[in-house]
Inverse folding.
């Protein structure tokens, strides 16, 4: 499968004596929506942290576009087009909604300090572009009217949407969402479902999702990986996962 | 108006003068703390180096026979800012960055070590005796009754006010308007997240140290000329005072550092003016103790939020 966007093999992560992730393998092709599910504490977020350079994996390899990224610092991985959201959102709460989206485009503003000081035409142009992109995504996630509000003052569901918009302005190829539906009501979850599908269809992003909301997962995923106690338990299309006795056992306990 | 009024005004002016330079140094403490959560105890030494470089520049220009005051002042500022910033940059690279992910206490000890190193390095290179710094600017503007006490604003004080004001305006514009400033604020809120958005946070941290050192250099040039005497040990006391100012205003907050610096300077001046100058340090540091006891987050500081 040479056309893989992301290929993880034999990934392990050890914290002292605890092996949080072991023999983890993932393959994601461009344009797919792939979900990782598993009971709490299964190691899903740890896998995310390894993939984004937040942790350095204890072993195994992570190939992104046939390039080894397991030893790269987080900001370099982000520059390759891999960005993520967090369970607890982690917005810049003291900054405005708009500023959150502008700071995420920092590296696209290819201008030096002097250019910024004297507002050269090149600087203006790149600033305008950043503004346009920010406004586009504000509209997309329905936050246009809150552009100048402090991000910390937004309602919870709005903060989650802003988190996704902040990822999207970096123009990622692989978007990793860590429990995007946590704490959302059914309406908001339905909107999120639509948003994620739109992201793939209109913006060509590949999505890797951690989620507990099974309806959302079964609805939008092309494939699902199930993790239990740090190890891969099963993988396949939603239909297979739904009927897999191993998975049911892991979720419901041994009856 | 009574004499006591002019006496009061005089103390206030003296306090604001010293206070605004404390504020310049305090910004360096507060910005670094805001981003990486450590106290850069070598910052006072950076200020001292700023003074020494200004002295070297003034001496060199005088030897070359240049006597234009404005040219001398501008070169002293520019060269001191450039070289001192380089020191600030180097200190972070050598003494703090390798320890970034270790225990906070370790970085703190490294900072104290750096402070001792810099102090002795200047002492060995320049000698430990006082050096007389040319004051460059004399005279002032006097107001009040002809006979009895009248208040004086020296031109040097005016320069301190103006330069401090310009520096702080420039900093405010940088932080609030520029993309680098925006990235600095993002780092201060959540360093890890900023990195995950593809921003090189090490670069932003370096910029923070460079800005802090540049402002300390400005303070070094100004206070050196104001007091007229420098030695390798001035950094210690100035550093402690500025640290007090930063804590007083709320460490991590830039407006807080400015406010804290001014309050501290004015408090010191009034203590010296109405009681005795012997007591001014006692009062300044009692203020630090009181603040830590009753309002540990400082005047404008926000309560510590648990970072996940």
């Amino acid at each position: 499968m040479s056309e893989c966007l992301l290929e993880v093999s034999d990934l392990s992560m050890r914290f002292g004596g605890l092996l949080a992730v072991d023999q983890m393998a993932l393959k994601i092709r461009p344009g797919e929506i792939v979900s990782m599910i598993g009971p709490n504490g299964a190691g899903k977020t740890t896998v995310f942290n390894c993939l984004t350079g937040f942790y350095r994996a204890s072993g195994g390899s992570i190939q992104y576009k046939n390039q080894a990224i397991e030893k790269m610092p987080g900001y370099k991985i982000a520059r390759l087009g891999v960005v993520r959201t967090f369970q607890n959102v982690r917005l810049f709460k003291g900054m405005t909604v708009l500023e959150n989206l502008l700071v995420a485009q920092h590296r696209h503003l290819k201008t030096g300090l002097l250019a910024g000081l004297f507002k050269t035409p090149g600087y203006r142009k790149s600033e305008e572009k950043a503004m346009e992109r920010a406004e586009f995504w504000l509209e997309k996630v329905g936050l246009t009217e809150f552009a100048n509000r402090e991000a910390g003052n937004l309602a919870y569901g709005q903060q989650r949407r802003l988190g996704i918009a902040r990822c999207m302005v970096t123009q990622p190829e692989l978007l990793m969402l860590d429990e995007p539906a946590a704490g959302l009501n059914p309406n908001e979850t339905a909107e999120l479902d639509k948003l994620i599908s739109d992201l793939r269809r209109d913006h060509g992003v590949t999505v890797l999702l951690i989620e507990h909301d099974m309806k959302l997962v079964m609805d939008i995923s092309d494939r699902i990986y199930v993790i239990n106690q740090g190890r891969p338990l099963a993988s396949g299309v939603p239909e297979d996962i739904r009927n897999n006795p191993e998975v049911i056992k892991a979720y419901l306990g041994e009856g | 108006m009574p004499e006591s009024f002019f006496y009061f005004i005089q103390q206030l002016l003296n306090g604001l003068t010293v206070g605004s330079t404390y504020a310049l140094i305090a910004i360096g403490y507060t910005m670094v703390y805001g981003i990486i959560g450590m106290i850069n105890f070598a910052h006072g030494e950076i200020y001292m180096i700023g003074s020494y470089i200004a002295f070297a520049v003034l001496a060199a220009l005088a030897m070359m026979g240049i006597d234009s005051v404005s040219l001398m002042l501008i070169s002293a500022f520019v060269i001191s800012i450039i070289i001192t910033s380089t020191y600030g940059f180097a200190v972070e690279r050598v003494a703090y960055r390798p320890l970034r992910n270790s225990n906070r206490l370790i970085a703190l000890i490294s900072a104290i070590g750096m402070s001792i190193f810099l102090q002795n390095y200047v002492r060995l290179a320049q000698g430990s005796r006082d050096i007389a710094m040319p004051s460059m600017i004399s005279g002032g503007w006097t107001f009040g009754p002809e006979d009895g006490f009248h208040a004086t604003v020296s031109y040097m004080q005016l320069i301190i006010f103006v330069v401090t004001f310009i520096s702080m305006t420039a900093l405010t514009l940088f932080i609030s308007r520029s993309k680098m400033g925006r990235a600095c604020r993002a780092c201060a809120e959540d360093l890890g997240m900023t990195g995950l958005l593809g921003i090189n946070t090490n670069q932003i941290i370096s910029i923070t140290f460079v800005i802090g050192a540049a402002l300390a250099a400005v303070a070094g040039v100004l206070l050196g000329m104001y007091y007229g005497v420098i030695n390798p040990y001035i950094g210690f006391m100035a550093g402690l005072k500025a640290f007090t100012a930063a804590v007083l205003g709320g460490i991590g907050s830039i407006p807080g550092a400015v406010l804290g610096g001014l309050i501290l300077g004015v408090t010191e001046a009034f203590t010296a003016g109405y009681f005795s100058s012997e007591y001014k340090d006692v009062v300044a540091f009692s203020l630090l103790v009181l603040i830590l006891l009753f309002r540990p987050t400082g005047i404008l500081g926000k309560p510590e939020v648990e970072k996940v």
About this structure: The longest helix of chain B spans residues 3-36.
